UniProtKB/TrEMBL annotation:
Gene3D superfamilies: 2,3-Dihydroxybiphenyl 1,2-Dioxygenase, domain 1
Transmembrane segments: none
PANTHER family found in the cross-reference section: PROTEIN YJDN, PROTEIN YJDN-RELATED
Taxonomy, superkingdom: Bacteria
Ranges of residues in domain Glyoxalase/fosfomycin resistance/dioxygenase: 14-130
Name of the protein described by the UniProt record: VOC family protein
InterPro entries with a match to the protein in the record: Glyas_Bleomycin-R_OHBP_Dase, Glyas_Fos-R_dOase_dom, PhnB-like
Amino acid sequence: MTVEMCPYLHPRGSAREALAAYRRALGGDEPALATYDDIGMDDPAVRDLVANASLRSPVVGPLMVSDVPPGTEPLPPAGQVCLFGDDEAALQAAWDVLVEGGEVEQPLEPSPWGSRFGSCRDRWGVSWMVDIAGAGG
């Protein structure tokens, strides 16, 4: 028996576009994806939006995303994720993709606790923290 936990993100704009970037940042096979039309919602406003998509990353495990249908109230948070570990190359590569078109809140730099730490909000509104252990230099 297995139990897993994974982030479920609601990127603003295009979940497909965000998912492609997350796949570039974190690796993984082609994501499993279902549109709202696939699950029986033929409303033209949502039919082609992503109802649920899952990416299994060899770096971080599972990640799920979906578009938020127009008019959804209250609007769910876009999400916040922390990537951490000691694989400096993988975490730096992920950071480089996540900040493309986004906003760096805290540059990826040495932290008081001995790692390199940074935070950003990607172009879809999802917040990311990256902590590279032992790379505080």
